[in-house]
Design a protein that fits this description.
This protein is 65% helix and 0% strand. It is mainly alpha-helical and 280 residues long. The protein has a domain of 159 residues: Tetratricopeptide repeat domain (Serine Threonine Protein Phosphatase 5, Tetratricopeptide repeat), CATH 1.25.40.10. Helix 5 runs antiparallel to helix 6, helix 9 runs antiparallel to helix 10 and helix 10 packs across helix 11.
Amino acid sequence: MADRIDESWGSQMPNQRVVLPLSDAARASLLAVRAAQEAARDRARRQTKRTRAWLGGIAGGIAVGLLVFGPRVGGHDAPAKAVSSSKLPESAPVAVVAVEAAPQSAPAASPSAEAVVLNAPDTPESSDAPDAPDALPDAAPGDDACSASFGQRRWRLSIEACTQAFQAQPKNAALALRIAHAHHARSRLAEAADWANRAIALDPRLPEAFVIVAHAHTRAGNPAGAVEAYRRYLVLAPRGWHATEARAAMRAHLREKHARMHPTTPNTPRTTAVSVAAAD
C-alpha cells in the first residue's frame, strides 16, 4: 500500500517544489536578518544625504569667501602686476609719405602768415565761446552820447558824438575804435581804416580794428595788406568771430601768389599744385 501511495504521488506532482514548514525559531531569525538589512539601508541613505549637504555647504562657503576676500588675497596691486607682466602689443608703424620739395627759385610765403593759416583750426566758431560781432571795449566815462548812439546803431550821430568825446580824451583807444566801426557800418572804409589805425596805435590788442583795416585793404586792391591785417587779427583772436573769414582770405591769397609764381603749362608737371592743395 505504501509503495502505491509513493508512486501515485510522484507521478501526479513531478515538477512541484515541496515547501517544508519552518519552526518558530527559524522564522524569527529570518525576520531579524531582514530588519537588520533594512536598518543598514536606512543608515546608508541618511549618511549619503548628510555627506551631500556637508559638501554643498563647503562649496558655498568657498564661493562666498572668494567673492568677499578674493581681492584682498592678491593685494590691491594685483591688476597692475598682471598688466605689467603681460606683454603689450607694439603699435603699428606710422606711415611716412615723402613730399617732393619745391624748387629753390620759388620763394615761400611769409612764415608767420602761413603758420597761422595752416596750423590753426578751420572752424573756430564751432569751439569755445567766439568773440561777439562788433565786440568793442568799453570807453571811458563821460561818453554817454557816444555810447547811446552807438548802441542804437545811429552811425552818423555816433560818429559826431564819439569824435567829440575823443577830442576830450585823445588817448582813448575804445573811442577811436567806435568811430572806426561807425564809419565801417556806413561803408566809408577809408575813414574807418584811418580811425582803426589810430586805435591800434593807442592799443595794439584790439582784434576788431585789424578786421576793419583788412576790409579797407581789400577794397583798395591791396591783398598783401589785407593778409597782414588778418594775420594780426588771428594772433589776437584765433577763435574769434572773423577767424574763418580771415583764414579763407589768407588761403586765397597764398593760392593766387603761388599760381603767379608757378604758372601751369602743358609741359609743366602739376606736382607743385597738388602739394599746395594737400598743404591747404
